[in-house]
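step=predict obj=cysteine--tRNA ligase n=521
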Amino acid sequence: MAGSKEEFMVYNSMTRQKESFKPKVPGKVGMYVCGVTAYALSHLGHGRAAVNFDVLYRYLQHLGYEVTYVRNFTDVDDKIINRANEVGEDPLSLSNRFCQEYLKDMGDLQCLLPTHQPRVSDHMEHIKDLITQIINKDYAYAVDGDVFFAVEKFPNYGQLSGQRLEHNRAGERVAVDSRKRNPADFALWKSAKPGEPSWDSPWGPGRPGWHIECSAMSAHYLTFNFDIHGGGIDLIFPHHENEIAQSCAACQESSVSYWMHNGHVTNNNEKMSKSLGNFFTISEITERYHPLALRHFLISAHYRSPLNYTVSQLEGSSDAVYYIYQTLQDCEDALSPFQEGSLKEGTEKNGRTVKITPAAQECISKLHNEFETKMCDDLNTAHILTGAFQDALKLINSSLNLLKKKQQRQQQLLMIQSLVEIKKEVQELLNILGLLSSDTYSEVLQQFKVKALKRAGLVEDDVLDQIKERTLARKNKDFAKSDQIRAYLTTKGIALMDLGKETIWRPCVPAGEQPSLPNEQ
């Protein structure tokens, strides 16, 4: 495989250990990830799952695999029906609206579109066929138009979660229903109720249970044997446990090689969820922060670890991504006249290849090796943009300063080509992580500035007026006032930078308590 000399290790929730990744078909990967139940706007937990598995998708492609990535939408569900009844909207219309909102949010977060995005409502025949197979193999039974899976028929029930059948008490994880043979039996098909959407079936009109949907859609697009099944850690039980039971009941050879689960997003160390009312929607965050900053935050912890949401961490991510893009912009500005002229694609006019400096070679080697080592270790994105990555940005900036000085032609070409190669490596790494925007660097930087002004409650003219006031104060040697203006703007997340006789501003992490302006005292 291209991309890495190291063995790609992934943590398998089924075996509870890291394992070497080996797909069932060499060179090809089948991956199914449980998507959202579309009844409300997506929150950070949904964003984390999508971003984490998008990083996996991108990295597998980087390794040279042809990936079939399936992520479903649940658009038929109790929660959707209840919400639709509350607002007086058709359930399928409501769920379609929130599917579109989800796609917009994930597009903003730079998640690649999966190969397939099936919806439950489009796969009713596949679901009914699968239920029929399970009944025919005596793993399920019909009662008054409902169909239940008989968990006692499946001896391996609990193998993924470690949950024992006797712990699965009715009323906690599953609905209480005296018609069940075992309180832990779960619904494959629910009979129609007045005012609910329903489809005809051999057991009467109704709709599918939640768990059967994913078994049917994964089998349809990937067969019963595929490589990766993913989702949030809260899906291990009962959802994924029930999927395994259903799929194995229908097809004895059913097998998923690797079960992968991402950790929760927490708010003050408590799981962020709609039911607890302590969540933030993705659109609420991206209204105030650039989506790239949010994506950076979402990959800042290992995907299996809890990720605690704080404003300070989001501010830190915003500042980190701004610095990356400012460095790339400065590099592009410095290189553009040379690349348009005598230097292009690492060659001189006479056709000789231009080498790079030993420092640049070492930097690129370290950057590549450190990145691959971390990614091959179960996608360890925590701190992946520190260490060698920060060293690369520092080398770019120090080289740009040297480039401004007068040098011999050969030394200048060496420096330029070194910058070209380092920049290329940085861009490739960012692209694999989904942090390389299709917009220009200058456009992204401007977008960050717009968000910073919004958070500060200012418009750019306000900042420019403060810069003028400060310039006048400095001219009058009123350095106390000059420092006060700078300190005030810094608390607002606006940093002033003096470049010769010019002062410019950029976003920064807000600092300290907010002092008043001189004219407010």
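step=describe
Residues 76 and 120 are 6 Å apart (CA to CA).
step=end
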